[in-house]
Amino acid sequence: MALDLSMPVLVVDDYKTMIRIIRNLLKQLGFSDIDEASDGTEAFGKMQERKYGLVISDWNMEPMTGYELLKKVRAENSISKTPFIMVTAESKTENVIAAKKAGVNNYIVKPFNAQTLKGKIDAVFASE
């Protein structure tokens, strides 16, 4: 599937500052339809109401983590194919492996810049 810059993107993070950073990076890359959620529960609710072309989610959040959100999304037929990029401050190998097993499309370790984000997004859409 080709990368469509007009597709809706959902950014999930419990830190407003991180959402703002990712939103700005996405805008730099040409995305215009960017939605946000402050945790996995809110994100899952939004995903039930709207079809997103990409989800970029933080790992560490309360009450539902990005990892739990990923597993829930992959288990839900109507949204299970949604491209999902996990963002985390930890580059623990076991986390990367767990996320891969749960069906994550890509993984970004903070801090990152627009070029890194673009590379990860391009890789997700090149592999579809």
Automatic annotation (TrEMBL):
A Pfam family hit: Response_reg
Alphabetized InterPro entries for the sequence: CheY-like_superfamily (IPR011006), Sig_transdc_resp-reg_receiver (IPR001789), ST_Response_Regulator (IPR052048)
UniProt modified residues of type 4-aspartylphosphate: 58
Key word Nucleotide-binding present: no
Keywords: Phosphoprotein
GO biological process: phosphorelay signal transduction system
Name of the protein this chain belongs to: Two-component system response regulator
